[in-house]
Each structure stands twice: as C-alpha cells, then as structure tokens.
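U., I forgot to send this yesterday:
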Amino acid sequence: METSIYIRLRHRIHLHMNTNVKLKDIAQVIAPESLLPALLYVEIYQIRPEDKQIIIIEAMAIVEKLLQQWPEADIQLIGPAQTIIDTAPPAKKSSFPLFIFVWWLLFIGAALTIMNFHEDVSMQAVHIKLYELVTGEQTEQPLVFQIPYSIGLGAGMILFFNHLFKKRFNEEPSPLEIEMFKYQQEINQYVILNEQKESRIYRGYRS
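Result:
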C-alpha cells in the first residue's frame, strides 16, 4: 500500500554550527502516525564549518533521502522549493546607553525632518492665515491651531505605525513591518540565486 507524505519546507531557520539537520528542523510534515516519528528524525544534512553562514537545502535532496528508506512512499512537496539555514550566532542584547543614544539620534533626526518640512510648506504662515480667517484677528502664535495640530501629528504617527512602545493596537501589520517583510523576502531570494550561481546548494548525494 502506497504511503502519502506531505512536506512543507520552512523559508528560513537558524541553527548552530555542527548541527545534524533533521527533517523536523526544516519542514512541517504530515504522514501516518506509525511513520511520523521516524520521518521527523531523519538526518538530512550535517552542518560543517566550511559551509559558512548560509546553507540552502533543496526539496529534491529531501525527497531523495526519504526515498532511500521508504521507496514506495508518495512524497508531496508543498510550498517553497528550498529552505535557508542561517548559522549566524544570535545577536547580543544592546546596552542601555547604546539604546538611549540611538533613540536620541532618531528622535533628533525625525524632529529636524518635520521642522524642515513645515518650513518648506510655510506651515506657520498657514496657521496664521487660518486663524485670521476664522477669528478675524491677527496673531503670530495661533496656538489654538498649533497645539491640536502637534498632538494630532504625534497621534497620527502612533496610529500609522500601529505601536506605542510594545503595545499593538490591532492585528494588522504596520507599513514598516510590511516593508521589513518585503525586504527579508528579497534577501532570501537573493541568497538562493547567489548560492545557485556559486553551486553551493545541497541537492542530495547525486547532485
């Protein structure tokens, strides 16, 4: 009787150097209960120091490995055709003084950007003109417009990025998170194409 095995490779994972890469590390697997434990612990690859930081394993290498043990199995691959293994050590936690320095640098940069934009579009003159149109009076400091505008500017940025410190307002990703996701996808695609060009992709014993 033919046994069906469904495999979905993970896009990118982190493992340590000299790790024995097992199927459970790089893929989600659906198979009969009697077969699943043995499948999950099939050794796919041995990470070596000469592999450097990035290792790419082709789906066909996994199929070849499994068919050696279960030649009658019907293996169905779902999702990506490669999985990327990153062996870079985890980043160290940044120190609090460094966090404050970066935060202050970004704060000053954002403040200067907003101030220069307002100067370019003459926001002060616009507020003065609006105040004069609404009240019929002239003033150089129309605080009745400037204060709500400043509060609204900050609140709008918080809502736009969907975060206040660690608090998320809803489950929708922020524009920044979407751009970071796109950036990571492009990096993954570049890594795969670059490794293919340099013939450093693991395709199995008969590659």
